[in-house]
Amino acid sequence: SVKDRIMYKLVNYDRNRQLLKEVPYRKMLDLAVAYEYFLDTDDDRSASILIRNDHMEAWGVTSDELYAVALKNTPELMGYRLCSIEEIVREIYGIRVDSLPDSEKPEKNTMPMYVLTNEHKFHGAGCILYSNLLKKIADEWDCNIRVIPSSIHETILIPMSAAGNCEVTSQMVREVNQTQVSPEEILSDHVYQFNRETGKITMQEEREYE
User: Fold this and answer.
1) C-alpha dihedral, 184 to 113 to 142 to 144, nearest 10°
2) Can you say whether residue 121 is alpha, beta or left, with left for phi > 0 and alpha for psi between -120 and 50 degrees?
3) What gap in Å lies between CA 148 and CA 187, rounded to an integer?
């Protein structure tokens, strides 16, 4: 009766070690895939109930079964949105970037950046696990993708052909996490790369995840 509403979310593994003792999860690089029951609400807000080991035992299912169900349900329940930074500015402020004063326009040599989240903007970092989504984007861009963990709610995608120095990007991520992201919403201090040939995500020299 609940399996059609079970979805997954991505959280930082080290920051949630205590919680992960109480919930089924699958480790992915420095992250963990945990599971939730998605709730319908009467307004535009999204809500969920974290699935714990007690739920899994009561239902008589395994962690692998939860993963398979969540992997199918999450794209169907949450969808995805891929927007350029310019589109985000237009959405927030209701203006076109080219109508901004010159002093407020992005520099022309600014690297292209795209925000990937779900339609609810709720635990949207999990979109990077959608089957073939990153592959489709990478093929359209004709290059691999740098994946920046903005928060548990979204990631930032940059074409590797314009991504610049990885260490500089990693330093930026750490600084933003320390100053702009609430501790419970930090996804990672590391930068990832999606390889369109292998279909895998890597974190520097860590093992690959397919």
Assistant:
1) -40
2) left
3) 10
Tokens 């205590």 belong to: 18
Alpha-carbon span 171 to 134, nearest angstrom: 24
Give 69-98 pLDDT, tens digit per residue.
Answer: 999 999 999 999 999 877 776 665 565 555
What confidence tier does 6 reach under pLDDT thresholds 50, 70, 90?
very high
Residue 42 has pLDDT above 80, yes or no: no
- The mean pLDDT of the chain is 87
| 3-class SS letters over 123-135 | CHHHHHHCCCHHH
Nearest residue to 152 (alpha-carbon basis) of 73, 64, 65, 50: 50
Tokens of 88: 């985000």
pTM given for the model = 0.85
Phi, psi of 121 (to 5 degrees): 55, 35
**In angstroms, what CA-CA distances link 97 with 85, 91, 162, 163, 175?**
10, 10, 21, 22, 26
